[in-house]
Amino acid sequence: MLNIRLITSIFILALYSCQSQEEGKKIISQIPESGTLKSREVGLANAALMPYKIVVSADKAVILDQGKENLFKVYTLPDFSFLYTFGDIGEGPDEFQFVNGNSLKIHGEQLVVLSGTQLIKIKLHAEKASREEQHTLISDTGGPINGLHLVNDSVYVADIGEAKPGAPEHRLVHLGRNEELVRFGEYPDQASGINRDQGNLFRNFGKRTVANPKDGRMAAFYLYHNQIRLYGGDGELLQEIEVESSSKSASDEEMWIYRADPFASSERIYVLYIGMPKKEVEENFQTFRPHLEVWDWEGNLLDRFRLDQPITTFTYAEEFKKLYGISFFKEDVLFEYDLK
User: Fold this and answer.
1) pLDDT single digits (tens) 76-134
2) What is the distance between the alpha carbons of residues 306 and 272, in angstroms, rounded to a whole number?
3) C-alpha gyration radius of the chain
4) Rounded to whole angstroms, what are the CA distances from 218 to 86, 214, 325?
């Protein structure tokens, strides 16, 4: 049986009706309750042992498996017929030293893989996958890049790993020229219960950033802070949003988990909302059920649905209007939600 704390740590790796402005910040105090989304269970051939991330293109789905071999499992859409596997951990020319699942995405017809300081673009063919591009990225410390998200074909946003309080937290970089374009953002005040290691702010907050595929606007969601920030394509802060929670922590020292694994389309942003202490997730994983929040790019919380399964990562197929979720706790199935 998989270690539940290890699994949880991997993972943790009527519209809105009341809001106010406070010091330039938008406060959302009443949350829409949009009911429960019911899933259709889909059995998977060649199932992942430790499913970490799922991404989709127009006609394929890729699941990252944190098992011992065959990192990537490729399926057809919308029926999820199995096609092939590829990718191993190693030092060889077609192997990966490490795969950052939080930065895995499909951009156009390519799978974008972050491995240490290398960004690799992979073409997904009908019968195999082939590497098309590889770029060495800027790293101030020489270590891995954190929180990378490809904004467009030539620009990516990433966390600044050595960020200090009051200093910028993001950088925009031109991929082809390997040139930093701008640094922007500033970490929020530390939330209670977070290890106050000021040298590891990006880890303490667990931020995930996504971009609008049409105009490059960005949205940053914090795992341990009940806050969202919207930025323009040039890094200008457009809106800071704080969501008031009706749930009260039994102790100020508890580490609360808020939002994880956002996915952005040109019209909407979908994100998992946890809303409970990390300890409760670990102790109640069998009954754990997150919410799906739906935001627009103006900073409005449109819906919050309860999911009927312990979904730990998901993606959205815009062409089919379907959300596909997987769970660390269920190895051989996928859950399909119809959002039409």
Assistant:
1) 999 999 999 999 888 777 788 888 888 999 988 899 999 888 899 999 999 999 999 99
2) 10
3) 19
4) 31, 11, 23
> Contact at 8 Å (CB) between 270 and 294?
yes
What is the number of structural domains in the chain? 1
Using omega within 30 degrees of 0 as the cis cutoff, is the peptide bond preceding 78 cis?
yes
Q: 280-310: per-residue pLDDT in tens?
A: 888 887 788 999 999 999 999 999 999 999 9
Q: pLDDT tens digit string along 133-152?
A: 999 887 776 667 888 999 99
Domain that holds residue 250: 4-338
Among candidates 292, 295, 286, 293, which has minimal Cα distance to 330?
286
The Cβ of residue 282 has, within 10 Å, a number of other Cβ atoms equal to: 15
Q: Which residues of 116-132 are buried (b: 16+ CB within 10 A; e: fewer)?
A: bbbbbbbebeeeebeee
Return the structure tokens found at 196. Answer: 């106050």
Nearest CA-CA partner of 204 in 248, 147, 243 = 147
Residue with token string 């998200």: 149
pTM confidence score: 0.87
- Our CA angle for 268, 272, 274, nearest 5°, is 145
CATH of the domain at 77: 2.120.10.30
